[in-house]
Design brief:
Keywords: Signal. With 173 residues, this protein is of the alpha+beta class. It contains 2 helices and 11 strands; from the N terminus they run H-H-E-E-E-E-E-E-E-E-E-E-E. The radius of gyration is 22 Å and the shape is globular. It binds calcium ion.
Length: 173
């Protein structure tokens, strides 16, 4: 065999191997954001309001599937006059695909809302209250109290014992 032929064979084999590697997506296991949104709206309703966001009840509840722009009025991405639950510790910092669930409603009598209604069952690891309110009282699905949130406060990590357990809460204005 000539050197030229050998180098040609090597080039062809190289091209085949390169194509084979390219055919495997870098992140085959993770569904796309749109696929996640489709699954959430199919199960929980709501309206898709951007490429990365689902909204319920006219904006009273908002789920961001990627980190939103951190506007000046926000605390860790949680808008003013709202309170937020984050999928990961440190308010999803360095987790661009972490979910953040934002609530605005709260009543003096203590409004109950279910994280499970928005695909956020057993996910919360950090939280922010960027709102004037008396208390957000957070529970497991079996009604065990996990933690209590006060006005204009935050937790970067709820701790191992409470991690990924929150299912519902009451917000007292
Ligand atoms: Ca979590």
């Amino acid at each position: 065999m000539s050197r030229r032929f050998i180098s040609l064979v090597a080039m062809v084999i190289g091209a085949i191997l390169a194509a084979a590697f390219q055919a495997v997506p870098a992140n085959a296991a993770a569904p796309s954001v749109q696929a996640q949104i489709d699954a959430i709206t199919a199960e929980h309703g709501g309206q898709q309001t951007s490429a990365t966001q689902v909204t319920w009840r006219g904006g009273a509840v908002v789920l961001d599937l990627v980190a939103p722009d951190r506007a000046l009025a926000s605390v860790e991405g949680c808008p003013s006059n709202a309170y937020c639950f984050y999928e990961h510790q440190n308010f999803n910092h360095n987790k661009p695909n972490g979910r953040m669930l934002t609530f605005r409603d709260c009543t003096t009598a203590g409004l109950r809302q279910n994280l499970t209604d928005y695909g956020f069952q057993d996910k919360t690891t950090s939280w922010v209250v960027n709102k004037s309110l008396r208390l957000v009282d957070v529970f497991t699905g079996t009604n065990t109290r996990l933690w209590q949130e006060r006005a204009h406060s935050k937790s970067s990590n709820v701790g191992t014992a409470d991690n990924d357990k929150a299912d519902w809460f009451r917000c007292y204005l």
